[in-house]
Amino acid sequence: MPNIDTDLWRWYHNVSECHYHIQLTIKYRRSVLEKDVIECIKETLSGFKERFAIHIYKLGFDENHVHIICQFLPKYSAGQVIGMIKKLTARPCLKIPSVKQELWGGEFWTDGYYIGTISNRGTKDTILKYVEKQGKNPKDIQLKLFDLE
Length: 149
Prior knowledge:
CATH class: Alpha Beta
Strand content: 15-25%
Structural class: alpha+beta
Radius of gyration: 16 Å
Distance between the termini: 42 Å
CATH topology: Alpha-Beta Plaits
Number of helices: 5
Shape: globular
Strand order of the largest sheet: 4-5-3-6
Helix content: 25-40%
Largest sheet: 4 strands, antiparallel
């Protein structure tokens, strides 16, 4: 397994320092991320490090979307990783009765996603703090990640 104690992953003859911020949205922006659904997602993602060499080290949950901070080797494309996450988390979550009632069409995630590398648009610490604050106090204004003006 890659050494996950540092930012550099060494895997056979490869060294990687790629961190990603992924945001996935629930289908129809339904607010289904209750405690049992969050636990289901966490449990499913907990095995990714051992199974796929994808280290998911921070999750942030809001009512209808999930933020993921992860690191994976360049043997996967970003689309492949997102596809695995969506596919493998949707199946068990759709078996939860409250989710099945809200999302009767058999789809858990929207078709789209956001992915960004954690780099010069914001420090890793800035984005980690942003993800940690997700869903903490819905009355607070969401933090700005980037000043694009």
